[in-house]
C-alpha cells in the first residue's frame, strides 16, 4: 500500500462520525443515505444533514472503506474493511521490531 492510500485510510477513520457510519454499515450492509441519516435519529444522536452524511460517505468511499452499488436510483453503501486491514498491516510492518533509536 502506498503512502497516499495509507493516509486516505487513516484520515477517513480519524473522524468519529465516519467511524459511527462504519459501525452502522458493519451491522447492516447495503444502506442508503436516507437510512444512514435516519439511524442517527433513531439512536438519539444529533441528526446530521444529508449533505454532511454524504460528504462523510464520500471520504470513506475515496479511501476504499465502503463499496457502492445502485438499486434503481438509490445508492447503497456497504463496508469494505480490506483497505483498513492492509493499512494497519503496512503501518505495523514498517514500525514493528524497530527498537528505540540510539
TrEMBL record:
PANTHER family: TRANSCRIPTIONAL REGULATORY PROTEIN
GO function term, MF aspect, one: DNA-binding transcription factor activity
Pfam families: HTH_20 (PF12840)
Stored Gene3D superfamilies: Winged helix-like DNA-binding domain superfamily/Winged helix DNA-binding domain
Lineage of the species this protein comes from: Bacteria, Pseudomonadati, Pseudomonadota, Alphaproteobacteria, Hyphomicrobiales
Alphabetical list of SUPFAM superfamilies matching this protein: Winged helix' DNA-binding domain (SSF46785)
Domain HTH arsR-type: 1-99
Protein name as it appears in the record: Helix-turn-helix domain-containing protein
